[in-house]
Each structure stands twice: as C-alpha cells, then as structure tokens.
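Figure 3 (text version): structure tokens given as input.
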C-alpha cells in the first residue's frame, strides 16, 4: 500500500521539481550583476541541453558558463566582448540565435528545406493516386439493397 501511495505521488513530485527547475537559481550577491548575467545567458545555448539557454539550464556546464560570465562582467568586459569570447571558444552554435552566414545557413534554412521536401513528397503521393480507380465490386446483398433503395426513391418522386 505504501508503494502504491509513493507511485501515485511520483508524478506530482516530478512536475513540482520540473516547475522549480526551469530557471537556474541566481548566485550573485549583486542583483544588478545577476540581471546582466542572465541577459547574456539568455543569448547563449546550453551545449548539453541544446534546446534551451544557459539561463534556463541547470546542467553543470551551463552553471560553469554562467559563473564565467559573472567573472568576466566583474572584470569589466562588455556583453559583446563576452559573446565574442564564447563564440570564439565554442563556435556559432553556442549563440542561441546564430548569425546568418555560409557556415550557419543550414541552421536557418534547414527547417524550411525540410518543410518544402515534405510538401513535395505529399504532392507526389497525391498525384500517384489513381483518380479513376474502380470501386470494389458489390456483392449480391449490396446489389439487392441498392435496387430496393432505388425502387423506393423512384416511387416518391
């Protein structure tokens, strides 16, 4: 019975943990510094999670990168200097919105190309269908029922 209760409560515990875990906890004593850290962290992709910013990630690497941003801000570097440093170190992929250039064109145009390919394949599939395909032949019972319906309809008009 205790096991059943624990299993019943498990989804609530997981959802509560996920609700509180969607934002990384600030660690800077200075709120203004933390605000600047998070502004920069929102511009950088978590290299572990890849689908969220390092501001939202609790991955160990994201925590380290936020700490590195704090240190660089404390040293007087600007946001653009920090972003350039991260881009130089990890490549354009670390930017949550990478610039459009030859090396990132697939990141920007890839989804549209896949969408066009899917649309093209859908059209090809529709065109291959035979519009004059013969319906399945009717059996004797279906023919009798159809004749009965036609006779009834003919008597009404």
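Below: residues designed for each position.
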């Amino acid at each position: 019975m205790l096991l059943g209760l624990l299993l019943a409560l498990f989804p609530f515990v997981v959802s509560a943990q996920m609700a509180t875990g969607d934002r990384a906890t600030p660690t800077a004593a200075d709120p203004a510094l933390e605000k600047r850290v998070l502004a920069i962290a929102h511009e950088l992709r978590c290299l572990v999670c890849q689908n969220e910013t390092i501001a939202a990630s609790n991955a160990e690497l994201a925590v380290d990168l936020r700490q590195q941003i704090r240190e660089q801000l404390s040293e007087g570097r600007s946001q653009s200097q920090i972003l350039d440093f991260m881009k130089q170190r990890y490549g354009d992929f670390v930017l949550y919105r990478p610039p459009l250039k030859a090396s990132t064109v697939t990141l920007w145009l890839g989804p549209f190309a896949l969408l066009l390919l899917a649309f093209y394949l859908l059209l090809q599939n529709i065109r291959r269908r035979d519009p004059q395909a013969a319906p399945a032949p009717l059996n004797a019972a279906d023919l009798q029922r159809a004749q009965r319906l036609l006779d009834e309809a003919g008597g009404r008009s």
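Residues 117 and 145 are 46 Å apart (CA to CA).
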